[in-house]
Amino acid sequence: MAHPISSVSIWGRRTLIALVLLGAVGAVTTFATSALDRDVESSILTHRVSLGKLAVTVTENGTVESSNNEEIKCMVKGGSTVLWVIETGTIVKPGDELVRLDTSQIEDNILAQEIIYENALANKITAESDVAVAEKSITEYLEGTFIEERSTIEKEIFDAEQALKQAELSYESSIRMAAKGLIKTLQLQGEKFAVESARKALELKQTQLMALEKYKKQKEVQTLESNLRAAKARLASFDASLRLEQARLEREQEQLKNCTITAEIGGMVIFPSMADWKSTPDIEEGAVVREQQTLLVIPDVSQMQVKVGIHESKVDRLKVGMPAQIELQDVQLVGEVSEIAEVTKPAGWWTGNLVKYDTIIQLQQREGLKPGMSAIVDVVLAEHDDVLTVPVASILESDGQFFCWVEERGKVTRRLIQLGDTNDEFTIVTAGLAEGEKVVLDPLAYVDEAQQQALRPASAGEKDAEELAGVVKEDSQSDNASSSEPVPGT
């Protein structure tokens, strides 16, 4: 058995180096060639291989935030300028003023829109009057003008009939008188002409009555109805224009209301967290903000979570529901993975060229949690029970092969090993080592062969793998028994 491990003083190492430099060349050569066959020096640190548990975790820094945020946005069309904003961290109640934006431009727009609205209202009133007049004109014609014209013509027809009868009686009397020789023929012809003239006058009036009832009335009614429809169309147009201008005026008035933003719910007001790579203006007095820009956030502190960025090399192992340990200052919390982003954020100089995926860790409800608190998150990716583990510091990688140096019967020998999962501190060994064996920690610092192994070319590494493959196979078949022979020195 090897004697217990102890540390040597710095002075002792310096003395040993001085003695080697001043010693004989033969002694130096003997010391160098027997480096792997010597007894284990007390300065070499070792670790005993044992069965145990291994938890593979990923640790990242994150920020506490609420999973349910009431966002306060700028609703002013085209954006505006901030005149006043409440201080971040202020506790507010529903109705408290949060942000006040510039109203000068909107007030000018309201005044100009009111003028346009009033003109549209005047046009609508005029159009309504035109419709009413057109409707009355139809009634007036049918119940007044038409009856008046018809009565006038009927009276004229009556007068023409009387005139015709008088002319006919006068003509008959003239015929009798002409037969007696009392009047001349020329006078008789005059009487006959008067009869024809009276008959023509009667026919004319009768024709006028027929035209009035059959054509003129229909034409006048159609014209008046067309005027009514045109008046109604103008009224509809002016009404639509009025409603449009009224809507514009109401929108401008609403924009004026949007310049004063108040809280709809109570809570603590904070500024929204911006992406590190995104350039956004500060929400402060004098800042120009755009429409739909989030100005403030009122988080729901009863639903808190932690957002972390998981490196692309680990995100494939991450699953929803995995447990996580969260450290907040001096508070330890338990959570679980609730969401993993499908798309990564753009990487660049602002992220140190690291590609990370946003991951949400849901926290249990707890008083005192505030948005923006820094958190250290450990997500448990895997847990292994009853596995052989060795420190990462005891492993040397050379050309894709993994080696460690084992203390056996007072000597150190090289061993090719196969590895499993790791948590960057300890690694699972699946072949090449047995429980109870001791491996050298940091072999590059203590074992000459380890330094030479690290400097070997790729071809030499392949040759070592072939030579030691049989040893690893034999070792795994013997239930990890410690039976390998020391590797010859170089």
What does this structure look like?
There is one protein chain. The strands form 4 sheets. Strands 2-11-14-13-12-15 form a 6-stranded antiparallel β-barrel. With 490 residues, it is α+β, with helices and mostly antiparallel strands. Residues 1-41, 274-279 and 476-490 have low confidence and may be disordered. The protein is rod-shaped. Strand 17 (401-408) and strand 18 form a beta hairpin. The protein has helices at 10-22, 25-33, 104-180, 185-258, 312-315, 443-446, 448-455, 458-477; strands spanning 46-48, 50-66, 69-73, 80-85, 91-92, 97-101, 260-262, 267-268, 288-289, 294-299, 304-311, 323-328, 331-340, 356-363, 374-391, 396-398, 401-408, 411-422, 426-431, 438-440. Helix content is 43%, strand content 27%.
Topology summary:
Layout: H1 10-22, H2 25-33, E1 46-48, E2 50-66, E3 69-73, E4 80-85, E5 91-92, E6 97-101, H3 104-180, H4 185-258, E7 260-262, E8 267-268, E9 288-289, E10 294-299, E11 304-311, H5 312-315, E12 323-328, E13 331-340, E14 356-363, E15 374-391, E16 396-398, E17 401-408, E18 411-422, E19 426-431, E20 438-440, H6 443-446, H7 448-455, H8 458-477
Antiparallel strand pairs: 1-20, 2-11, 2-15, 3-10, 4-6, 4-9, 5-8, 6-7, 11-14, 12-13, 12-15, 13-14, 15-19, 16-17, 17-18, 17-20, 18-19
Helix pairs in contact: 3-4
